[in-house]
Amino acid sequence: MAATTALIPGATPRRHVAVIPCRWGASRFPGKPLARLGDKPLLWHVHQRCLEAKRLDGAVVATDDERIEAACRQLGIECIRTGEHLTGTDRVAEVAERLPAEAYINVQGDEPFISPTGIDDISEALEYLPPGTLAVNAYTELADVGAVLDHNVVKVVVSAQGEALMFSRQPIPYPKGDRPKYLRQLGLYGFTGPALRRFRQFQQGPLERAEGVEMLRLVEHGHPVQMVPVLDDGIAVDTPEDLAQAERLLAQYAGL
User: Fold this and answer.
1) What is the spatial distance between Cα 49 and Cα 154, in angstroms, rounded to a whole number?
2) What single string gives the DSSP state of each residue in 186-209?
3) By C-alpha distance, which of 105, 91, 80 is closest to 199?
4) Which pLDDT belongs to residue 235?
5) Helical spans, DSSP H, in the chain
6) In angstroms, rounded to a whole number, what is the distance separating the alpha carbons of residues 153 and 130?
7) How far apart (Å, rounded) are the C-alpha atoms in residues 1 and 21?
8) 124 C-beta neighbours (distance < 10 Å), count
9) Taking a C-beta distance cutoff of 8 angstroms, is the pair 118, 201 a contact?
10) I want to staple 100 with a disulfide (CB 3.0 to 4.6 A). Which of 13, 164, 190, 243 is the partner?
11) At what angle do helices 42-52 and 66-75 cross, to 10 degrees?
12) For 186-220, what is each residue's pLDDT tens digit?
């Protein structure tokens, strides 16, 4: 297990804090958090989006990799060294045990264009959690057919009450009787500290293991995930090809 960063005892509790889990060994794109987008690493862009949100009390990178920790130090980004974990949310849960806060927003480190307003929407939704709900998760409508078919893009089916019924990398629902709307799950989750402790206590179920979607852990154990619609037209960087597309998008934003 990697060495972890010890936090100063008696740290002042924060309100809502963003935690950006970053690991080196992504199977589809090793070293992805430090891949250059423009003149900065990918994780820097995600951190900037968190700083632009209005409701947060800070943003911290959580990693088990010394290279990522060193890069954060050079960039002036707060970083917590964690052990190794199965998922990003498990890593956020370790941070929650050592960084006091009312709630934690998991902002995945491959979403360089994540909407600061969407982050604030998740923060606000955490103030109104229905009883028994352990997490809130952002989603947006998918218009691009290619994204619907892309297994790197996680789709979600939402109930009339706004709860997640199922997440999948397959295009769900299947359009047998009608043309459905396809919804993309964003890498943007919100939890309280006690909810993260519960998350870590649950075992990975067969659906989570098969799909590689960590929010399925809560669904499989019978705990609602409240879905929050947000406006977001960015892309997640899962592959080097996505990074090239992100470069083009960044150039478009720079030209506005």
Assistant:
1) 21
2) EEEEEEEHHHHHHHHHSPP-HHHH
3) 91
4) 86
5) 42-52, 66-75, 88-98, 116-125, 145-149, 193-201, 206-211, 216-220, 240-255
6) 27
7) 16
8) 14
9) no
10) 13
11) 50
12) 999 999 999 999 999 999 999 999 999 999 999 99
Side chain identity at residue 25, one-letter code: G
Q: How many residues does the chain have?
A: 256
Could you tell me the two tokens for 149?
């078919």
Asked if residue 29 lies in contact with residue 35, where contact means CB atoms within 8 angstroms, the answer is: yes
Structure tokens at 245: 């597309």
List, in order, residues 6 or more apart from 244 with CB less than 8 Å away.
Answer: none
Q: How far is CA 194 from the centre of its chain?
A: 18
Instruction: State mean pLDDT over 85-110.
Output: 95
Peptide bond into 131 cis (omega under 30): no
Q: Across residues 117-124, what is the average pLDDT?
A: 97
Amino acid at 148: V
The confidence score (pLDDT) of residue 12 equals: 66
Nearest CA to 114 among 226, 243, 237?
Answer: 237
The token pair at 67 is 């290279």
pLDDT in tens, 4-50: 444 545 566 679 999 999 999 877 789 999 999 999 999 999 999 99
The β-bridge partners of 17 are: 104
The DSSP letter of residue 251 is H
Amino acid type, 87? T
Positive or negative torsion for Cα 108, 111, 112, 117: negative
